[in-house]
Design goal:
This protein has two domains: about 270 residues, no CATH class; about 110 residues, no CATH class. A four-stranded antiparallel β-sheet has the order 3-4-5-6. Strands 1-2 form a two-stranded parallel ribbon. By secondary structure, it is mostly helical. The chain contains 23 helices and six strands. β1, α6 and β2 form a beta-alpha-beta unit.
C-alpha cells in the first residue's frame, strides 16, 4: 500500500474516532468496539465532506486538497476529546468478567467465521470492477466523471440538459441522487492516483466491519454480555445480502442500513441512560441519511416522528399521535397534503397518486401480484436466512419483555412504521413491480435489518419481567455516572 493510500485511510479513521470521543467521552462496556465502529463510519463520511468542500476545483488531487482541512478537524476534535476525558464525569473503565472456556471457544469460532467471510468479501472487491446496474449507473458515474474530468460538474435532468444544454453539465437516470458517496470515491481515487475501482470500492468492506463493531459495542452498553453480543454480531454479519452488498460494492443501501442502525442504537442509549453525547450521535447519524440516498429522507422523517412521540409525556402520547394522524389523513383525502422533504422536494400526497418532483408520479392502487414477491423475499429466498421467521416468534414469546422496556417499545414502534411504509410502497404503488422482480424490495428491506436484529437482541437477552428488579449488566456503571 502506498503512502498516499495509507494516509487516505488513516486520516479519516483518526478523525472519526476523535469526533466520537469529543461527543461521548464516557466509558462503558464495549466502548472500544463502538469507538472503532463509529470511527470508521464517521471517518469515511468526513473524508467525503472534506472532498466536497475543498476539492471541487481539483478532483484529481482531492487527497492533497482536502487532507489539511481533515487533519485540522482531527486535531480540534482530538483536543476536545482529551479535555472531556480529563473531566471528572469520565467514569473509570468497566472490568471484564472472566469467561468460561467453552464460551471463549465459541466466541473465537464465531469471530473466525466472520473474519473468513470478511476475507472472502475483500477478495471479491479486489478482483472485480464496479458491478453493473445501479451500483455503476447511480453512484459511481458521478465520482468517475468528476475524477477523470479533473473538477466538479453538475448533473441535471435529461429534460434540462436537452432544453438548455448547459456547458460542462451532465445527465443520467440518477442525476438527482445525493453525492456523498461519490465524493468519498473521489477521495480514494485521488489517493490511488487513478480510477482503480477495486481500491475505490474498499470502503464498503470497511463499512461492513464498522457496522459489526459498532453494534457489538452498543449492544454491550445496552446490557448484553460478551457472549450474547458476539452471538448477535455473528447473526448480523452472516446475513447473506449484507455480505453481498459489501462484496459487490457500489450501492448505497448498506450505508443507509448502517447509519440508520447506528442512529437507533445511540438513540436507545439516550432513552435508557440519558447520555446527551449519545443523543447527539443519534442526531448526526440520522441527519446523514438524506446525504446517502433519497429514501434516507423517509427514514429520517420516521425516526424523528417516533423520537418526538417518545419525548411526549406518556399520558398525552396517544391523543397527540391520533390528532396528527387524523390531520394528515384529512389533508391527503382533500389533496392538500404537501410535505417538504430534503432531496425529494415538495411531495404531494393525494388519494390517487403521490407526486415526487425528482421521481415523478406514483399512482396509488392495490397490486396483489406483489404479495407473492414480498412473501418469497421474506420467507423463501436465502437472502436473510431465518430472520423473518424467527423475529415474529421472538416478539410473541418475549411480548412482556418488549412492553416492560421503553427502549424496546419505541424501537418496535419505529420498525412497525418502517414495515408499514415498505408495505404501502410495494403493495400500494407502481413500485410493486420491483417486489415482483425481487429487486428493490430486498435492498430497501436491508435498511431496517440491523435495527431488527437489535430488537431481537434486546428481547432475547432481556431478563424475565418477573425479575426486573435484578440489575442489568449496565446498571452498576450507570449508577456511578
Amino acid at each position: 500500500m502506498s503512502g498516499a493510500l495509507l494516509l487516505a485511510w488513516a486520516l479519516p479513521f483518526a478523525s472519526g474516532v476523535a469526533a466520537y470521543c469529543a461527543v461521548d467521552a464516557r466509558a462503558a462496556p464495549g466502548r472500544s468496539a463502538a469507538l472503532a465502529g463509529y470511527g470508521i463510519v464517521f471517518g469515511l463520511l468526513l473524508a467525503s465532506v472534506a472532498s466536497a468542500l475543498r476539492a471541487r476545483a481539483n478532483t484529481a488531487h482531492a487527497l492533497s486538497a482536502a487532507a489539511p482541512a481533515l487533519l485540522l478537524f482531527a486535531l480540534l476534535a482530538g483536543s476536545a476529546a482529551w479535555w472531556r476525558i480529563r473531566r471528572r464525569d469520565a467514569v473509570a473503565p468497566v472490568p471484564h468478567a472472566k469467561l468460561e472456556k467453552w464460551k471463549t471457544v465459541l466466541i473465537i469460532a464465531a469471530l473466525f467465521s466472520l473474519a473468513w467471510r470478511g476475507w472472502l468479501a475483500l477478495r471479491e472487491v479486489l478482483l472485480r470492477p464496479t458491478y453493473p446496474w445501479d451500483a455503476w449507473d447511480a453512484w459511481a458515474v458521478k465520482s468517475k466523471t468528476w475524477f477523470l474530468l479533473g473538477h466538479y460538474a453538475p448533473f441535471v435532468s435529461a429534460r434540462d440538459w436537452l432544453a438548455q444544454h448547459p456547458p460542462d453539465a451532465y445527465t443520467g437516470p440518477a442525476w438527482s441522487y445525493p453525492s456523498a458517496l461519490a465524493w468519498m470515491q473521489v477521495w480514494f481515487a485521488s489517493a490511488a492516483g487513478d480510477w482503480i475501482e477495486p481500491l475505490v470500492n474498499l470502503p464498503w468492506i470497511a463499512l461492513w466491519v464498522g457496522l459489526l463493531l459498532a453494534h457489538y459495542g452498543q449492544w454491550r452498553a445496552l446490557g448484553l454480555s460478551r457472549p450474547q453480543a458476539v452471538g448477535f454480531v455473528y447473526l448480523l454479519g452472516s446475513l447473506p445480502l449484507l455480505a453481498v452488498h459489501a462484496a459487490l460494492a457500489g450501492y448505497a443501501d448498506l450505508w443507509v442500513a448502517t447509519l440508520l442502525g447506528l442512529a437507533l442504537l445511540a438513540w436507545l442509549r439516550w432513552i435508557e441512560q440519558r447520555d446527551r453525547g449519545q443523543l447527539l450521535i443519534a442526531a448526526l447519524c440520522a441527519c446523514a441519511l438524506p446525504l446517502l440516498k433519497l429514501e434516507g429522507t423517509i427514514w429520517l422523517l420516521l425516526l424523528a416522528a417516533v423520537a418526538g412521540y417518545g419525548a411526549l409525556p406518556r399520558r398525552r402520547r396517544k391523543m397527540v399521535a391520533a390528532v396528527i394522524v387524523l390531520a394528515l389523513v384529512a389533508m391527503a383525502l382533500i389533496g392538500k397534503l404537501l410535505l417538504p422533504l430534503y432531496g425529494l422536494g415538495w411531495v404531494s400526497v393525494g388519494t390517487q397518486s403521490i407526486d415526487v418532483p425528482v421521481l415523478g408520479r406514483l399512482p396509488i392502487g392495490w397490486h396483489p401480484g406483489a404479495v407473492g414477491g414480498l412473501f418469497s423475499s421474506l420467507f423463501a429466498q436465502s437472502n436473510w436466512h431465518l430472520l423473518w421467521w424467527l423475529t415474529p416468534v421472538l416478539v410473541v414469546w418475549r411480548w412482556r419483555a418488549l412492553r416492560a422496556r421503553e427502549a424496546t417499545r419505541l424501537l418496535a414502534l419505529f420498525l412497525c412504521a418502517g414495515f408499514g411504509f415498505l408495505a404501502f410502497l410495494f403493495l400500494g404503488t407502481d413500485a410493486a413491480r420491483w417486489a415482483e422482480s425481487f429487486t428493490a424490495f430486498n435492498r430497501l428491506l436491508m435498511h431496517v435489518v440491523p435495527a431488527t436484529v437489535t430488537l431481537c437482541a434486546l428481547l432475547y437477552c432481556a431478563p424475565h419481567p418477573a425479575r426486573r428488579g435484578r440489575a442489568s449488566a449496565y446498571a452498576p456503571l450507570h449508577a456511578q455516572a
